[in-house]
Amino acid sequence: MSAIESPAETLLTWSEQIVGELPTGTVTLLLADVEGSTRLWETQSESMAAALDQLNRTVDDLVPTHGGVRPVEQGEGDSFVVAFARASDAVACALQLQLAELAPIRLRIGLHTGEVQLRDTGNYMGPTINRAARLRDLGHGGQTVLSGATEQLVVDRLPEGAWLSDLGVHQLRDLPRPERVVQLSHPGLRNDFPALRTVNAAGGRHLPAQLTSFIGRDSQIDDVERVLKQNRLVTLTGSGGVGKTRLAVRIAEHLSEGLTGGTWFVDLAPITNPLVVPIVLARTLGLADQPGRSTREAVARFVRNRQMLLVLDNCEHMLDACTELLVELLDVGQEVTVLATSREPLGIAGEVIWRVPSLSVDGEAIELFVDRARRTRPDFGLSEANSSAVAEICRRLDGMPLAIELAAARTRTLSLTQIVDGLHHSFRLLAGGARTAVRRQQTLRASIDWSHTMLTDPERILFRRLAAFMGGFDLNAADAVGADADVEHFQLIDLLGLLVDKSLVVAEEVQGNMRYRLLETVRQYGLEKLTESGEAETVRNRHRDHYTEAAVELAARSGGDGAPLIPWAEIEMDNLRAAHTWSCDSGNFEAALRLVSALQRLWVIRGRFREGVAGFGAVFNDARYRDEDVAPATWIRAVANAELLAVWISVPTSLQRAQYALAAARALDEQALVTQILLTCGLLSMNDSDLAGEYFAEAAGLARATGDSATLYHVYCYECFVTNVVGDPRASEAAGELGRDLADALGDSFMSRYSRTFLTGSLGLQGKLSEALAVGSQLVEEARGAEDRPMQAFGLMALAQVLTFTGNVAGGRAAAEAALEVGASLGGFHDDTAYLAVATAALAAGDAQAARTACEDARRHTTPLKELFVRSLLPMAEAALECGDIAAARRWADETAGVVPGSYRVQALNARARVAVAQSELHQADSDLHDAVTVAERTGGYLRLPETLECLAGLAADDNPVHAVRLLGAADAMRRRHGSTRFPHVQVTCEAALATAREALSTNVFDTAWTEGTALSTSEAINYAQRGRGARGRPASGWESLTPSELDVVRLVSEGLSNRDIAVRLFVSPRTVQSHLTHVYAKLGISSRVQLVQEAARHI
């Protein structure tokens, strides 16, 4: 223990009741410690003293309760060990420890089961406790992790509500055997944590696998590493084929240890559009596109405060794009280091240029030649007889690694003497001259020329055609692009194999399938030969047609999860981009739109919205493009897809364009196309809920009529989103359940998760908190397991609100913070909604200033297109009011109450009523609260209704205490049905109203009124609250002329109640009931109860 942690040693004590005879044999050990105790003692010493005292008492209570025993002196300061004879008892104890209120302490707990060894009668030693300690060290504060051994014993005996989340198999520090790790999860706990603190968890090492051994350059590696540690941008320059990429990867491998933000490799060679450079980097970093934030902004947010190494390979043809991007990243990411490779410097201030030399011709070059020759001829070896020839080859090739590898590949069919002679012939123009960079480039060129000359005609033809591929290709693609009368289909496999043997093509296995690629320097040479041949356009057209048709065909047979399209497209993305670019460049907009539309599932499921939008935009924004030049179905489908993608990332959309496409689709009479564009129109109409509803209803009807189940569940899922945003939780729940169920049935787990995100919110808005908690918890866990970080973040945001309203404020805050953490891993993802959840949790915890700060954070991170939604849920007025800033509270409340839609108005009106009370504007408050009741009844948004009734009770307490008590009783019963809790500022209102009423009423009258209130159903409570409210604008006769009180009487008459029974239910006299009936008969022009019941049946 360090001196700074010494207070823990004096405060963390253990009573004798939990120290006893240790269990032996097979035992489950619980090891725990306090995360960041040193920092806590430095920053919160007083809180830590109290917290450790509370931890003391908590452990004293929980350990013996669960049958645990603590070793005498094992665990020191801020850590402890407990032994259990039964694994299930250990898990139950760990759960209770994590649920306990110990702030600011957060425990890391590890559980492992095994045979124990006693060091003495009071302590353990050996592998079991060592493994338990390493497990604990993997975790984060608030996290409990179990070994695979413990999991097997407890999986069927978990505490109520708990579940286990698989975290994979991990290597434990200093231990030889890796361990399967699971996490103990529970709705009351934070369940989303950063990656485990494993040996290799320092952000991850994302470097390409190398198929051949790395030879030499030890001193150069040391030199570059030393330069990189002192400078944040180093560019490896040199001729093509000199080994820049291999050297950069080798250096990155050496430096990856200890980089918490990871090591990332980005190959820019296949990129032809500068705008794609940040997109490729974002994809490498695993970032999904985000609303209101460009890809560059998302990348910049991701690298901020991360200690990471970026390796950007082959920058020379994208210098401007790389320079612009790196200047920004190096500015915002002060711990980012960049290692670039380029044939020329980037030209950025602070750049260190390190020129990569050739291999030493008398050592490393010879070693490389021998190694690569053995890959072709296993019996090849360096001997006295051939050493001079090998040395001559390496000298002639100037120690250029790629040239040496090409020459070594010839040892299968040529002798060393023949190779020397061939090189002599190819290099005859290079006699004399300095060994400059130009000379080295000429050397490589001559080497490739010689290799090319040695090919047969069919080999040369196939070689140049393969240069059209970007990033790699499979055998089918090679056949589609490379075969014709000159290269027969049956020849192609053999010819491809020969090119591999000669090192002009690299073969590698990717996900169980063989793929091929040309090294970039060789590919550039092949492109020259392709251009010289006069068949470049034909070959590029074949390439375009192959990938376009393959994408269309795979999209047509892909299931709900996007397979087989998505896995294929992710591998072939460089070729797909190249095909799209060529289509646009050559003016074939039909092919370009068909290709981008075919990839729609990829854009959505993988969060690549901006790339999809850019793909459509490249066509629609081209001055040469006209709709009439493209098949109508193609451009209509493209409009539907492009506008839908735009909604996902909150960029401007065009309902008018979509409506134009809808009219064109109707003219074609293609029902599937009409359904698709109707769905898009529904999404784009979310600011007009009635219009959106019409579009969705027609789309769903067409999809059902045509049996198009795949489109139908998309309609329901997007309708769930739109109706949630406009505050119609009943419609959102109905659509969400239909969408979820149908998506599940068709195997589309992504859209199922999408619908459940908004279903969680809609259930919560209706006060169905237990259902919302179940849906949200399952959603978050499933998204985490599927590595679906966008839906994981969305789910956490929704779950945070639900947890907060159920009274689990700590859990709500933890879920909101976890959403921010997941969002940070995506470069910032809907942070406005996450901060909104933080604000709500802070207000529920009674910390108005923290709530206000979080509200400001939410506003700072939102976008214009999301501002209304964020305003709908943001507790800014309440937070400002509790902070004493009445003017700011009133300003926000007035602005909000007039614009937010649907059920969200209940919260807005409640907030404005509170501000009005603070300003002694009681009439305004009463009006707003009654309006809130009306909105809740109309929309089904009952979550905030108890607060409305409690505020009304506060207004009524002085003049009508019986009425106030009934309202409070009704609100209390409603909260019990919802499972919701009062926030502290609401609790103050309730306590004041109760105190006033108790003072004014006898105990008997108070209790009677309370009982009457608690007996009211939600609808009865609404009717009671609205009774007596003015009837301005009501007609003199007819059903619409009935007052709320008269309607209450009519409903109860319809239920068959007598006047006396009705009087009891409504807290009035039988005479009053009869008076209401007389008025009703007169207004409706009837004279009997039978007629009244019949009339009511037509209206209620």
Automatic annotation (TrEMBL):
GO terms for biological process: cyclic nucleotide biosynthetic process; intracellular signal transduction; regulation of DNA-templated transcription. The keyword Repeat does not apply. Residues 28-136 form the Guanylate cyclase domain. CDD domains: CHD (cd07302), LuxR_C_like (cd06170). It comes from the Bacteria. Pfam families: AAA_22 (PF13401), GerE (PF00196), Guanylate_cyc (PF00211), HTH_77 (PF25872). GO terms for molecular function: adenylate cyclase activity; ATP hydrolysis activity; DNA binding. Keywords: DNA-binding, Transcription, Transcription regulation. InterPro entries: A/G_cyclase, AAA_22, HTH_77, Nucleotide_cyclase, P-loop_NTPase, Sig_transdc_resp-reg_C-effctor, TPR-like_helical_dom_sf, Tscrpt_reg_LuxR_C. This is LuxR family transcriptional regulator. The keyword Nuclease does not apply. Residues 1035-1100 form the HTH luxR-type domain.
